[in-house]
Amino acid sequence: MRVAFSSSISGQKLLQCNAPTSRADRAVGLRVCAIKDGAVLDRKLRVAVIGGGPSGACTAETLASGGVETFLIERKLDNCKPCGGAIPLCMVDEFNIPAEIIDRKVTKMKMISPSNREVDVGKTLSETEYIGMCRREVLDAYLRDRAKSNGATVYNGLFMRMEKDGPEGGYTVHFNSYEEGGKVGKPQSIKVDAVVGADGANSRVAKEIDAGEYDYAIAFQERIRIPDDKMAYYMDLAEMYVGDDVSPDFYGWVFPKYDHVAVGTGTVINKSGIKQYQQATRDRSKVKTEGGKIIRVEAHPIPEHPRPRRAQGRVALVGDAAGYVTKCSGEGIYFAAKSGRMCAEAIVAGSKNGTRMVSEQDLNVYLSKFDTKYWLTYKVLDILQKVFYRSNPAREAFVEMCESEYVQRMTFDSYLYKTVVPGNPLDDAKLAFDTLGSLLRGNALRQGAKTVSFGSKQPEKVAA
Ligand SMILES: Cc1cc2nc3c(=O)[nH]c(=O)nc-3n(C[C@H](O)[C@H](O)[C@H](O)COP(=O)(O)OP(=O)(O)OC[C@H]3O[C@@H](n4cnc5c(N)ncnc54)[C@H](O)[C@@H]3O)c2cc1C
């Protein structure tokens, strides 16, 4: 028999609903009733955000500021995400990142070809333009704290699983809470109306909604503390190495951090060779990093494309969990933060500031806006990777092309401001001609003709 009751979490009164009948419900202590999409609520909409990286923190901040009762669950509050930590200027502006979060302002990017030809990129930057370099442990903690100060409840917990409470019901989210310390954690559950999966490349939320798999690259990185005189060289400079030795399909990097450099590389097509590519990246940068001490070794998957499904019911994926890293540059921080914010904005708008039940349709609004805004950026970078990272002659042509100030301006504008900048038709024609010349000189077209395909698809949208 079912009887009406009310309950509370963190002192918050919940709506009247049926008493828990199952053992699981009794353990949780309350139910979130079956409520139709769009129905008016007599409490705030409740959303759990799983994962407190840039995507989760930005989702939680926007939800909490928009009137939604928000629970952010992060397994490790001092998490040090393996990452180069490079962020574009638009991230600093749009997400109000304070100066102290940026370790280094890079204004010179050295592109280094397979034959060690060096081209300095950055000549076209104005005095106020730069690539921000940050440590993820610092950036993520700052964004999470900001979500908390805007009203999100932050739990230190490992999300385990969730279940749906009937066709129009909410979700019971189970996690191991580390709030009381200890390594094992204490099982805890909360009832929510919707869930945002921001739990990165190995997302458990994605598995829960059968979101499907994606191809991924494995990226390896060593953080190296180098002598002061060597660090001075990297003060405002980063390096990108290309060549079969450092990666068959990506690039090797040396990025400066606060008091050390991050040296790394990645690959999709030969993951078992990653250590050999890392050694080659170390060897190529050896003169400049000699005498350094390795202070951290880290590796992590990088998604190659969006998952086949990114929303189901009242559950949506954002950031790496959804698969939003660009090809060619391997950039994901901005897209993680942005997708989190866009998803939260759709929930806030759809629920009229947390006063109505949100629907799958609202989540599809987020997907459709994100795809419309960024599809071209992903597409262009995908093509660039296919054309220029496929053989050493093509990579030589790529580095040669970077000499052009026009190319530098276009590249930086696209990266820093996340717009595919329309060029000047005359300069575009000259660029096409020069590129073809570079490719022909390196005999690159013939070598890679069999492997290039321009047929990659637009990220799939979830059916309404
Ligand atoms: C080596 C490397 C270098 C990179 N360099 C750059 C770069 O220079 N610039 C750039 O823009 N991008 C870079 N990227 C990509 C970038 O790191 C990601 O795109 C970005 O971190 C995605 O953010 P996110 O919040 O979606 O996921 P993540 O940053 O992965 O955050 C996920 C969070 O969820 C938590 N979590 C996971 N599972 C659970 C669970 N079950 N319960 C609770 N919490 C959980 C994790 O602890 C983590 O804090 C790099 C990636 C790698 C691997």
From TrEMBL:
Record key words, sorted: Chlorophyll biosynthesis, NADP, Oxidoreductase, Photosynthesis
Enzyme class: oxidoreductase
Pathways per UniProt: Cofactor biosynthesis; tocopherol biosynthesis; Porphyrin-containing compound metabolism
Coiled-coil portions: none
Statement: the UniProt record of this protein carries the keyword Amino-acid biosynthesis: no
GO biological process: chlorophyll biosynthetic process; photosynthesis
EC number: 1.3.1.83
NCBIfam families on file: BchP-ChlP, ChlP, GG-red-SF
Family: Belongs to the geranylgeranyl reductase family. ChlP subfamily.
Name this polypeptide is given: Geranylgeranyl diphosphate reductase, chloroplastic
